[in-house]
């Protein structure tokens, strides 16, 4: 399979959605709802708003199955991008309403808040998308405060392997702050 060819599941799912198969939407929801909700919650820090974004994202997918272009990347990434865009849009709306009501805050503060939330959501997405061995090493080292020797012992790998996993995991995470929302492929950045 060519490097840029999306998995067959993604193509079949898009075709099923385009045919209007309700079961396909249910399957897609089962597979990605927790991702969508957690990303939206990370940006908005509000359970009800995250629920609303989740509904909006899956509603958009149902109504616009052809908006997904398998040539642009995998379905999971596309769904995550839709979610992030919609959550950021909602955050901007909510902050604008607060500003109108109270007069507190500024456009600069809003953009800083949006940027922090977007970076945090991207970092969460990167961690959850990492291969399990990298994720396990990072979780031991950073959440449980293990050094690389303890991480190696806990994982049953050599110290060199533990360092390699930690280094690679951190390299992946470092992209969370460097990739901007504006760098998305055409058609992937529309607000729902």
Summarize the structure.
The chain is mainly α and 192 residues long. The chain is 74% helix and 0% strand. This is RNA polymerase sigma factor.
Strand and helix map with partners:
Elements: H1 8-18, H2 22-44, H3 47-63, H4 75-102, H5 107-129, H6 132-143, H7 148-155, H8 159-178
Helix pairs in contact: 2-3, 2-4, 2-5, 3-4, 4-5, 5-8, 6-7, 6-8, 7-8
Plain-language structure description:
This is RNA polymerase sigma factor. InterPro entries: RNA_pol_sigma-70-like, RNA_pol_sigma-70_dom, RNA_pol_sigma70_r2, RNA_pol_sigma_r2, RNA_pol_sigma_r3/r4-like, WH-like_DNA-bd_sf. The chain is an all-alpha fold and 192 residues long. The protein has 2 domains: 129 residues, RNA polymerase sigma factor, region 2, helix turn helix motif (Rna Polymerase Sigma Factor, Chain: A), CATH 1.10.1740.10; 50 residues. 74% of the residues lie in helices and 0% in strands. It contains 8 helices and no strands. The longest helix has 28 residues. The two termini are 32 Å apart.
CATH architecture of the largest domain, by name, is Orthogonal Bundle
> Termini, distance in Å?
32 Å
Radius of gyration: 19 Å
CATH H-tier superfamily of the largest domain:
RNA polymerase sigma factor, region 2, helix turn helix motif
Q: How are helices and strands ordered from N to C? A: HHHHHHHH
Structural category is mainly alpha
CATH topology of the largest domain: Rna Polymerase Sigma Factor, Chain: A
Instruction: Please tally the helical runs, counting DSSP H or I stretches of 4 or more residues.
Output: 8
User: Helix amount, in percent?
Assistant: over 70%
Q: Total number of β-strand segments? A: 0
Question: Which consecutive residue ranges, at least 5 long each, have pLDDT under 50?
Answer: 180-191
Largest sheet: none
Q: Class of the largest domain, according to the CATH hierarchy?
A: Mainly Alpha
Could you report the average pLDDT, rounded to the nearest whole number?
83
Estimate what percentage of residues fall within beta strands. under 5%
Count of the separate structural domains: 2
């Amino acid at each position: 399979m060519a490097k840029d060819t999306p998995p067959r599941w993604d193509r079949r799912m898009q075709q099923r959605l385009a045919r209007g198969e309700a079961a396909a939407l249910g399957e897609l929801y089962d597979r990605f709802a927790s991702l969508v909700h957690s990303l939206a919650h990370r940006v908005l820090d509000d359970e009800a708003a995250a629920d609303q974004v989740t509904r909006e994202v899956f509603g958009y997918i149902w109504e616009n199955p052809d908006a997904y272009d398998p040539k642009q990347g995998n379905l999971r990434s596309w769904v995550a991008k839709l979610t992030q865009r919609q959550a950021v849009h909602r955050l901007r709306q909510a902050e604008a309403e607060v500003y109108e009501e109270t007069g507190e805050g500024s456009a600069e503060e809003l953009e800083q808040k949006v940027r922090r939330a977007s970076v945090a959501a991207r970092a969460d997405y990167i961690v959850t998308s990492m291969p399990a061995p990298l994720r396990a090493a990072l979780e031991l080292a950073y959440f449980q405060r293990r050094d690389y020797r303890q991480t190696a012992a806990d994982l049953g790998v050599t110290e060199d392997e533990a360092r390699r996993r930690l280094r690679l995991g951190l390299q992946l995470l470092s992209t969370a702050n460097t990739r901007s929302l504006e760098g998305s492929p055409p058609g992937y950045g529309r607000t729902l």
